[in-house]
Amino acid sequence: MSARRRRTASSSRACGPGCCGLPAPTTGRSGVRTGSDSGACGPGCCGSVAESPRIPKSKKKRVEIDFLYLDLSTCTRCQGTDRTLDDALDEVSQVLKATGIEVIVNKINVTSEELASKHRFVSSPTIRVNGRDIQMDVKESLCESCGDLCGEDVDCRVWVYEGVEYTVPPKAMIIEAILREVFGRQDVEPVEQPYVLPENLRRFYAAKRAVHRARRR
Fold first, then answer.
1. Mean pLDDT, rounded, of the chain
2. Would you say residue 22 lies in a domain?
3. Residue 75 is assigned to a structural domain of this protein
4. Any idea what the CATH number is for the domain that residue 201 is in?
C-alpha cells in the first residue's frame, strides 16, 4: 500500500485550487475556461461533477407596425393601404411566428393637429416598422377622395417601389420593409428630427372643421 493517502471528493464538490496537486482551471475575461498546459483538473476529475454552463434566456423579439391615416371611410388611398397591409401581414406572419417574433399592429386615425404632432405625422397614409417610415422620402399627389371629404385640395402619399409610383403600396414593398427591419437592422433607435405640421395637413384639418361646423348649423 502506498504511503500516500488517496484523496476523494464528493460528487457535489468541484475541484478546488491545488486539487491532485495541479493548479485549478481559471476563467479569463472572455469567459473561456482555461487550465495550465500540464493538465489541470477537468470535468469529472477526482469524481467531481462539472457544472453545466448557464445559457442566458434570449429576449423575445418584437416588431411593432404603425399604420397612420386620415380617413378610412372615403379616402381610397388609405383604404387600399389598409387592405394591402393586412395582406402583407398574413403572408409574413408565419415566418415571424416561426422565428419567435411577436407582431404588434397599431392602426391610428390621426384626426387632429394634436394627434398629428403626437405621432409626428407628415403624410397620409404612413406605415412605420419599429418607428421607421417604410418610405423616408415623402412624395404626394392630389387625392380627390380626401378633397371630397373636406372640400379642399388635399394631397396624399405616393409610394415609390423599384422606380414605379403607386397610390397604394405594393404588398412586396411592405413585406420587404418588415423583414429588413427584423432581420437586417441592428438595434438602433431611429433619429428624430424636429416636427413641424405640414401645410397640407393643416389645410385638411381646417377644412374638415369648417365642414363640421357648417353641418351643425
1. 81
2. no
3. yes
4. 3.40.30
Helix and strand numbers (H, E) in the chain are 5, 10
Tell me the residue range of the domain where 122 lies.
62-184+195-216
The DSSP 8-state label assigned to residue 16 in this structure reads -
Number of domains in the chain: 1
Q: Enter the pTM of the model.
A: 0.71
Residue 5 lies in a domain: no
- Of 33, 118, 125, residue with least CA distance to 72: 125
pLDDT tens for each residue of 72-129:
999 999 999 999 999 999 999 999 999 999 999 999 999 999 999 999 999 999 999 9
pLDDT digits (tens, 9 = 90+) for 183-207: 886 566 667 789 999 999 999 999 9
In a domain, residue 141? The reply is yes
- Output the CA angle 55-61-66, nearest 5 degrees: 170
User: Could you tell me whether strands 140-142 and 26-27 are parallel, antiparallel, or unpaired per DSSP bridges?
Assistant: unpaired
Alpha carbons within 13 A on the beta-carbon side of 124: 32
Cβ-contact 65, 178 below 8 angstroms? yes
